[in-house]
Amino acid sequence: MMCACIYYTVQRINNTFLKKLKTNMNRIFILMSFCTVLLYTSCESHKEHHHEETKFLVTSPIRMDTSITKDYVCQIRSIQHIELRALEKGYLQNIYVDEGQFVKKGQLMFQIMPRLYEAELRKAQAEASFIEIEYQNTKRLAESNVVAPNELALAAAKLEKAKAEVALAEVHLSFTQIRAPFDGIMDRFHVRLGSLVDEGELLTEISDNSAMWVYFNVPEAEYLDFESNVKATEKTVVKLLMANNKLFAHEGVVETIEAEFNNETGNIAFRATFPNPKRLLRHGETGNVLMTTPLKGALLIPQKSTFEILDKRYVFVVDEENKIRSRAISIVAEMPHIYVIQDGLDENDKILLEGLRLVRENDEISYDFMEPLSVISNLELYSE
Length: 384
Prior knowledge:
Blueprint: H1 2-53, E1 56-59, E2 62-85, E3 90-95, E4 102-103, E5 108-112, H2 115-143, H3 149-174, E6 177-179, E7 184-186, E8 196-197, E9 202-219, H4 220-229, E10 237-241, E11 252-257, E12 267-275, E13 286-302, E14 306-309, E15 312-318, E16 324-335, E17 338-343, E18 351-352, E19 367-369, H5 372-377, H6 379-382
Parallel strand pairs: 1-19
Antiparallel strand pairs: 1-18, 2-9, 2-13, 3-5, 3-8, 4-7, 5-6, 7-9, 9-12, 10-11, 10-13, 11-12, 13-17, 14-15, 15-16, 16-17
Helix pairs in contact: 2-3
């Protein structure tokens, strides 16, 4: 009986405690909900207030004289690059130079075995000596009127022929020695010591790279602009960007333009000459020619004020009601951080400079205007 009474009392206490706990939890939940609503309302109010205070930077296109630098893939060639071939047949007896060596004009490089040609020369000299003796005897007889003058003339002709044979043998003998035709750098050998070379066989190549010819292709439209802007008395100076992405130390000059356009590519080849005093450049290298072209009265805008949709460029123009309107533009040239505009804008237009992702078509904005010259001058500092 006592146990039942105790159980009943404990059960009653537990029920009372659970009711109070449930009541307190409801109050806490209500309080938290109220705080959440207040916080959300405050944040929304803050966002709206912040949005109302946001100001965008706006500028205008600027028209000014400038220049653009265009790069063209180029092929670098030595001013002289020739093949050295054997002029006589024979065994290669000696090689006096090495691949990649710098040689001077007239320096002996290859020797073909000369024995056969030496023997031919001695034979021709002996025949010439014999005929000369005959000529002298005939001459004395002619002076004594023993032989006719025609016989003396015939002897003289034989002597001249013999001397010509000697000269021809000397030439053949000299062909066994291959000498450098100019100062230059040796290329790879195509024959080895002891090889039997035929007449006309390729031995090696030699390059004179004291100066370099750099060829690059220019589209037809750019060629016409070039011819229109460059005076006949002026030489166009260009720079060379080497394969290691560094500028060559010396500037070049455009000297010639080929006569015909390539019908397949629509390009024409230009040739610029670069001095190469340290012989850094070699025949067969590649790079990029940088050619600067002046532009008169070009209309410029910052690149960061544009956006792209389906391969077309647009800007946001601010109208008289401070509303955003997108407008397509045509770009004629590109410089670091700057576009040169062909059409779509004029100097009086106001374009959105920053915050392009924060606005939509027909949005009304509040803005601060920034002078175009100041914008252009600080593009590298403030570029996104």
